[in-house]
Structures are given as C-alpha cells and as structure tokens.
Amino acid sequence: MKKGIIIIILGVLTAILPLSLSAEDITLGKARATAEMFFSNCGVSTRSGSSLTLVNADEIAATRSASEAYYYIFNRKEGGFVIISAMDAAIPVLAYSLEHSFSIDEDMPENLRDMLALYRYQIKARRNSGEKATDEELKLWKIANTATRAGIPDAVDLQTPDWGQTAPYNRLCPLDTSGNKTITGCTATAISEVMYFHKWPKAGHGTLPSYTKDNNIVIPELTLGHEYQWDKMIPKYKNAVYTDEQADAVARLMYDVGVMCQAKYGVSATSASSATGVPRLAEYFYYDKAITKEYHTYLTDDTWKDIVRNEVGSGRPMLMFSNIPAGGSGHNFVIDGYDAEGRFLVNWGWHGGSNGYYYVGAFHGGYNVGQIAYIGDADNLYRRHHRRM
Prior knowledge:
By secondary structure, this protein is of the alpha+beta class. 27% of the residues lie in helices and 18% in strands. The protein has eight helices and 16 strands. The strands form three sheets. Strands 1, 2, 3, 4, 5, 6, 11, 12, 13, 14, 15 and 16 form a twelve-stranded mixed β-sheet that branches. Strand 13 (331-339) and strand 14 form a beta hairpin. The radius of gyration is 22 Å and the shape is elongated. The model is unreliable at 11-20 and 377-389 (pLDDT under 50).
C-alpha cells in the first residue's frame, strides 16, 4: 500500500506600490465590536463585551495608537477566539475558533508565532504602501459589522489528532548533553498526525542511518519493522487518562518519524526538515513517490486555494511548511479543513491549542503569501499497492 501526503511551503512575496490614499486603521473599540458581531452572527452569544478578553493586551498597550497595532486577538470566556485585523485594507476576521482558546506567551507554539509574524509583516507592508482598502475589502468590513445571524460558516473538518511535542509524545526522544529530555518538534508531530489519520503503514522497513548534529546528541541507527499500534493511539492525550501502552504507541511513531527527518533534538525546540523527511516516507514507510512541485508564484490565488480545497475535500489532510521573512526559521503544521469564506483549518500540533480557521493570505495584490505545493498524481496518490512488508 502506498499513500501520498500533500505539502505546502509558504514563503512571502511583497510589492512596493505607488503612494495613494492610505488605508484606515481599526481601533480597539471597533475591533471588539466586530468580534462581538462575529460570534453573534455565528449564533454564539458573548452575553456581554466583558466575556471577550483581549489576549494580546500587552502588545497593544506598547503601541501609541491604532496605527501601530497589527491585529486584535480576543478569547471568548465560554470558549473560542477570534483575530481581528487592525487595518481596513485586510480581511476583517483573520482567524477564529468556536471551540479552542488562543494560547499566548510561553504556551504559544512557534509555528503560530510565525503565522502572527506573517500577519504583522503583511499589514506593515500594506500600510507603508499607502494603498487604500479596495471596494471588496470595505464590503467585507460592512458585512462583518452587520447583524445577519448567518450561522457558523459552512466548513470541512477532517479532525486530525490534537497531539503535541512534550509528554507523552517525547518518551523515546533522547536526552541532551546535560541530561534533559528533548521534545519531538513540529515536523515529527505534524507528519505523525497525518500518518495517524491514514493509519498507515502497518510497519516501516529498512534501517534509518545514525547521525550527530552540532549539538553533539548522537542518534544511533534505527532498524524499522516493528508494527505501529494505531489502535492503541488516541486522538488527544492532554488532560486525558491514558495507559503506558497508549503513550508508548504514539511515542514510538513520533521518534521513528523524527529520526527519519534527522531531527536536531532540543529541550525547548527541535528542528527538522520536511524536505528531508517527506521523500523518506516513500523510502521507509511505503508512501507514494509520485509527488510533483507546484509554485504558487505561477498560479492564481484561486487556483492554489482550489488545490488545497480539493485535496482536503477529498479526505486528505495536508502537511504545510511556513517560512516567514525577517528572521523566521520555518515550521510545519497540518491543514485539515477549510470554511466557505476562504480560511483554512490549521492544526498547530500543540495539544489542540489555538487550532482554528486562519487566512494565510489576508491581502489583495502583492502582499499575499507565495506557496510551493508538492502534489501527487491524482490517479495513484492514495492507491493501495499489495506488497509484502
């Protein structure tokens, strides 16, 4: 049996446009009103404005005016969050969840930090251009602030597992040179979540080579062939009661994937390349080799979004790599859904924290993110091949 995994690599393209009328800034008061209207239109009561908490209050307080804010993040007391743009030349509701709360400070996963950095980068670039909001953007703001009771946007959700990088997933991860337990990293977590969704393979094959990174942690060679206990793994471990057998099952998978990707293990962060790992899925885990590369640079936004929606809509969650400019190191996460308004459902691989529907391109013109998609042949991407393992 062979399966394929779709990967999106995000970069950023910017454009410098001639100065014209400037876009309007969104004040905290207007952002809060937009957030309240969003939840109300979804049929989710906020009872009062006091039930919404500004999560990034410290960041906003550090600015001197609305022109220095980039977005406003509100957690809903009853559950859920929403991110509102601080400029009218952008999509009003950048991201939301009606279930998960937004993690902040030390609880925020690094891949999410980079997504917020992308929002800041885009908004700053748009402001500096002096370009005013388009008619379409202004229309979206009008709709966002009009009572409609339209309900929750129609959406697809493949429900990949809410796994993380610490215990119990890192049970088999090595100790660092000081004797401290390392973590799995976002790459191993994201790939493992997609593998769990497919419950494939029954076992790997071959021997993963040993390696040593510049942190002097020696990873010995790893012989595959042991069966993965998919039925023992559970969708969520945080705040759940689980057995050692259930913990060991997911830890076995995570470690094998980490070694496959030649992860550089660390206590606070573990880095690994999906560009290294994904080809090895075919080599060691019987996944499909038929993966081609498509550049968003050469595609329209609508074409690229259609690619994502088609794959996810066909029941295939996508591995995504995000590379943010100006110091971003790049991180992996999973896209396992989308809504009718163009947002994609992101699983950050952080125990479910901050999972929600996010815009990955909140602007028109040259400020949107550019992507490279690795796409398998539609006829054999998920076709099972009978072979002895």
